[in-house]
Amino acid sequence: MQKHPSEVYDDWQKVEEAILILSDNAVNSRSDCMPNWAINLSLPEIRAQVDEIYQETQLHYTFALIATIEGIFNSQIKLYVDRRSKINTAKSLRKAFKSRITKKVYIKFEDILDRWKKADSRIKPIVAKLKQWLQYRHWLAHGRHWMVHYWTIPDPNAVYLLYQNLDLFISFNLPTR
Residue 136 in contact with residue 151, Cβ under 8 Å? Predict the structure, then answer.
């Protein structure tokens, strides 16, 4: 079962705190708390190792948050359109994807976001940032060996803040037929 973004973010905060404790123990050379891998390393080597662990973990949680947000909003927006909501944005989305909806053809999340942005200009900056981070998630998942594009690399805190803004902006209140 897929976790909710708030659960993924809570996990990130716990892991981040654990890494900071690990760093503190390793750097302060408390032998009773020092991890085995740090015993024979110099202080700069320990700091480099902890920094590498932190960066890789941050990438993992950034990926997990973006993927979770994409999954939740993709399914919620499709419900929003399918359930015949009377809100203008839903009408616009339904009209744009009418043939795909009736034929049960997959609608790309990016297409939904583009149409949604046209239907409600207030959400443009949030959608633009989300689309940029979806490209980043795709790069993390499939192409770390590709050349990095010039996008802002998000951290889990920024991604979760975007999710909260998006969640506050949209009150789905889906009818329960």
Answer: yes
Distances (CA, A) of 148 to 76, 136, 143: 31, 9, 9
How far apart, in whole angstroms, are the C-alpha atoms of residue 103 and residue 106? 9
The answer to whether 85 and 92 are in contact (CB under 8 A) is: no
Question: What angle is formed at CA 34 by the lines to CA 28 and CA 36, rounded to 5 degrees?
Answer: 140
User: What is the tens place of the pLDDT at every residue in 131-149?
Assistant: 888 888 887 778 766 666 6
> How many domains does the structure of the chain reveal?
1
Whether residue 162 is contained in a domain is answered as yes
* Domain membership flag for residue 9: yes
Whole-angstrom Cα distance, residue 174 to residue 177?
9
Give the largest CA-CA distance in the chain. 66
pTM here is: 0.73
